[in-house]
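Teaching note: in complex prediction, the entire set of molecules is handled at once rather than each chain in isolation. The prompt given to students was simply: 'Predict the structure of this complex.' The entities are:
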Amino acid sequence: MIHSDPHKPLSVPDAARSRRATRHFDTSRPLSDSLLKQILHVATLAPSGYNLQPWRFLVVRTDANRKKLKASAYNQPKVGEAPVMVIVLGYHYPERSHLDMIVATMRELGAVTPELAAETHSRARSTMEHVNNRPLWTTRSTMLAAATLMLAAESLGVASAPMEGFDEAKVKDAFGVPDDHTVCCLIALGYATEAKPFPGRLGLDEVCFEEHFGQPWTLGDVEEPRPLSP
Amino acid sequence: MIHSDPHKPLSVPDAARSRRATRHFDTSRPLSDSLLKQILHVATLAPSGYNLQPWRFLVVRTDANRKKLKASAYNQPKVGEAPVMVIVLGYHYPERSHLDMIVATMRELGAVTPELAAETHSRARSTMEHVNNRPLWTTRSTMLAAATLMLAAESLGVASAPMEGFDEAKVKDAFGVPDDHTVCCLIALGYATEAKPFPGRLGLDEVCFEEHFGQPWTLGDVEEPRPLSP
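The expected output is the structure of the full assembly:
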């Protein structure tokens, strides 16, 4: 976290550098409605196939519900501490319920011509018919939105923690999430109680290949990513 | 795309607003090595469970290889047009090959004490033993990195297009990708030939729930996200 002025949001590289998976949140600092809305708005701008936007954000803020969520997440303290927990859901069948609305908006905004609207609609339906692994499909776009959400939060001075340690069946049961949704992750939002050191990253020479799998990245002068602040 | 000055990268909200899934790339404009490296560096700053960083980026730039990739991606023109194609891979077993290196770096940077290093190592191993669906597990973190990559590109004036239309078996075969990796998506990078209108998004009242699944978001005054530029 470099600064916390929501009027001058951080750039993408700066937000990526200063973001940490926050361990403990300040229980005395709530997150304002206005910031929460801004963060969620930006998250919805993530891309998705056919603009189907399968992400759903279940926002949990009451003490009782955060306690319930904590019990479904191996009692991790941050779930109880963070003023806002977002249960990030991936919906399996957005083309069945939301495609008309999505294509109508695209027409309205001039993103498709009236002639192309019908074609877009039918191509989306037929492509989606061939998607067999719906949890995997929805997880792809939903995690794009989750990353956008956390970077937006960081850029606006709000700390986050992505969590994959939870019991999906328990979360679904506790919050009424139906079977046609996957719980992709939890995200805690709020303000960190302490600065956390940068844990480092593998170098580009470890995670990048050139032209063929296993062929090392040969661009010279590869620097390690470093944190902006100590 | 609002501007293209890599010295003043866009903020996260601005980059999210101006990003479009680019349809056609300018074949006469290469992407500089320096920009490509910056974009990939920022992508590696995405979070992952136990900092395992399962993403791998296979960078494809030669004409011959982009042609090969195009043939594995339903002949979509942008694969041939974009100066850089990134095959975004999710590795299934980073804890088997990279955990020592990752924990050593965390120790070096003071992110874990020497005492906690051993515990972190063994907790990561034992947690990962219980992950049955490796393609789903790796897709989660890898798509966080993919989103970070595209937002970083946009913030630095580079257009992108995420693609899920490809034949995974063909891509793997053509580029030697082993079975313990999932092809999560392709990302085209370069410069757009045309401005593309904003296709709209579902409102927060459609994609957010409050406290319980299906319970509508009641925060008043919900604005639709709008593009920054026409």
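Point out the following to students. The mean pLDDT of chain A is 93. The longest strand of chain A covers residues 181-190.
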